[in-house]
Amino acid sequence: MILTAIIAFLIQVPDTLDASVVRAQRRVSPPVEKATREVLERAANLAEAIRDFSGVQLRDYGGAGGLKTVNIRSLGSAHTAIFLDGVPIDNAQNMQPDLGRLDVEDLETVELYTGQKSHLLQSAREYGNASSLHLETAEPKDRKTVMRLRGGSMGTMAPSLSHEGRIGNNLSGRLRLGADISNGRYPFHVTGPGYDTLMQRENGDLKAFKASGGLWYKPHGGNYHLTARLYDSERGIPGPVYKQSPKYPMSLDRQADRSISVQASGTQELSSSLTLLARVRYSSDMLDYLDISELDPSVSAEWNYHLRSAYASVSMGWQALPWLHISGAVDAQNDALESRVDARRTALFTAASASVLKDPWRASATLQYQITDDGYSFLSPALLLDWHPRRDWEFGATVKRSCRLPSFNDLYYTNVTSRSLLPEKVWQMSARWCWDRSYGPWHFRANEELYHNRVADKLIAVPNGSLFRWSMYNLGMVSIWGDEIHAHVSWNNALGITARYSFQWAREDGNTFQIPYIPLHSASFNLFGALDAWRLDIKGFLTGSRLTAASTRPEYRLAPWTTWDASISWHSSRFNLSLDIRNLLNQQYQIVQGYPMPGVNVLMTLAIAL
Amino acid sequence: MKKLSLLVFSMALAAAACVKIENTSELDSFTGIDVEVGDNGAMTGYRLMILNEGAYPNMSTLVILDLTGKKYYADIFSQANPDITQGIGNTANDIDHAGGRFWVLLNGSNQIVGLNSYTFKEEVRLDIDSPRSIVSDDKYAYISSYGAAVYGGEAVNGKVYRMDLKKFTLESIEVGYQPEGLAILEDKLYVANSGGYNYVHDNRVSVIDVATFTLEKNIELPVSNLNMMRIGKGKLWISTYGESTWSQDSGGNWIANISAPMALVALEANGTSKVIEGVHADKITHWGSTIFAIGNNAEMTGGHDLCLYKVDASTQKVEVIHFAGTDLARVAYPYCILVNPLTGDILIADASFTGDSKLYCFSTTYKEKWSVTTGVGTGHLMIYGF
Question: Which residues of chain B does A295 touch, with a Cβ-Cβ cutoff of 8 Å?
Fold first, then answer.
């Protein structure tokens, strides 16, 4: 087809894929960031795999069991939707799931789209997000059984076993079992004007069990995929570190989770120009939180939450003309949360999109409309334009309006007064260029994206007079101006360096200072070298100082931090051995106020193909 | 060294206490920033102390505002005690001056700290479970405590601690659920119980005999979820947080209902109580024979009509001043109020828990005189003389 060259350049479509798959995966512009299998194999979880992406601020509460979420381009974590094989896996209670719980071992790619995901054929939920992370599971190929043993500091033990292979001509499958165990204990320093005290993080232990199974069926012109996942865990909640009477521990709280999900998706080519895409998901997430008084462990309160979600989506793509693609989608989602207060929401999403692909131009206009039975409706338009004047140059621009609805937590658990909350609305505008070129063994890539975001009706929790009564309000407008620069050089896939820099100017209207937790400057560096069976990776992260409250006073400022991680690995046809040293220089830092991060820590991984 | 008298007017104290202390005040050794607060001649020899609770887990901060020197001394505790690990502590819930020291209750840290009146050096630190409010007499300080209760857990009685101001020994007795405000009237200590952690809130005022430190009785009020307590014209004035409940409508949707508004109750020593009509306030203070209260007049209908209520403690006549239409409207979230006993000016903190709060000073005719940016969660004010 007319665009094969461009698409192959962009996504390097493996030639084994069917036409329908290619059609489903075709897109107008590339993702902003992408992690491939090589990176994913080395990451302990999704948070670790994407934390060096441009524009991503990882919010990490520290330790194996500490909550990990991402905030992209200063918009807040609730604006980033997460999709697993195209199916949304976000959570109606608190929006973004814990990225620390998401395994990346069986993923093929993780892609980040800020603004609009640009695939030609997608579900209605895939429109209307300010940014989205797309996790794509690797398709099983040849029969293999892999046992992985991972262990190290903080009593970490993370064994896993996976078996995959073909069952018939068109059918393949994978089964995976894994566990994460950690005592979560690590030393940290608290420092102030005239003190530096060594303390120990306690009650951060984690025991998690994970199981997943998948089936892939690929008849002619179709591609079907069924996955089931289980996550069962019990952990301590260490809470923030602050001054506590030496008589008492910092926290004794416990949390147990059990999540089960089943999802299926299918793409079928109906004719040479029509493709159908359907996706369904059911999930059940149980959370039991035990608030134990640190003053008297016999006194406690138990909070149970049981969230059930059902989701279905149908989309149709029509290649109307060789250069014109039109698609439409309808999704429905129902979320029901059972707790001391029940909450429900049924939402209907519809979307339409038209994409023009005429060399050297690519453009796409999309419109998503969502309506819910609890009184929300929102229209989210987006425009994408890409110009590809030469093979090595590309220019693009995006304009988009999106929103995030108040979560169940916002509506029911913080808000005691009867108050109708508005969705938080975002306008996004961005312009980008990319230069990508190879000279013999050398590969160069440089890109930059300038953006402006405008957030209206920001959702903020405000205490209403007492400890017991917090209310949510729609308050304030935020302006964000940002710049992301990314440069990469590599030689023969044996030596490479990537540097990323991000500038984020984010201010609430009327304020002369940055919004909390957003650094003005942040950067990351990756260096890798490979020789025969050996590979060395060095990663550096630099984050500027941040405010923990909308105040310029020094007592509400978090210090800038830098960390360096190193990883060395060796592989043979059957063995893969790696040693990871994180926070090499034993930097003491906090990403979230009151949550000290671990100092230097070590992780060893041995993978054996049985 | 010269002899000075130290006068304290605070939200917690019913009347100005007079304490003699040797030494001179030395703010010169601290770093202050210049603030625009206009002319405050009447405040010569007096300072304003501001307590910022901080948003969990941010540290609380204690601030001195010198209105005549026009200087703001931020985080005076860390300035005076730079080597004390983790500073003053977390979630400061009340402040008092007793036995020659400033006392700060640290709810999150489960401690009370005693500071030197002039150097602000930490001199005493004691463990008290979840302390909330403090009052004192010549010999003792009384501190209400939630005890080990947790929100939504089983009902656990709160406590009142008695601290000897010389020996720093502690005794405690059990009172109602989640005790809040305290007041001493005619040799009795009164404690307002909220029960805010329970599904059924508490409506009892615990009465403790000061001489024997024993619980004498509980007085039930016609309203529950009791909050602050003040004394005016021989009566106790008690505010409430108001009541809210959740219910499901016919369609299964959950609706929040405010089943009872915030209220103000006058309680006589003989146990008779009266709800003051038309006053919906949770924050109260007093000046002379007037009770000043702040609340939301439209709370029952889900509206936001902030009001200042002035209640004559003798006649119980109520004057309602709507924030809207006056300079008071500059305050979005009034979190604490103090009437300056020297000038009659009304000090109101517009608290923020995500950023800086702002402290406003309004004249007796509700005109803004000055305002200063304070820290996170400005919750308690005190004026002291030296």
Answer: 110, 129-130, 147-148
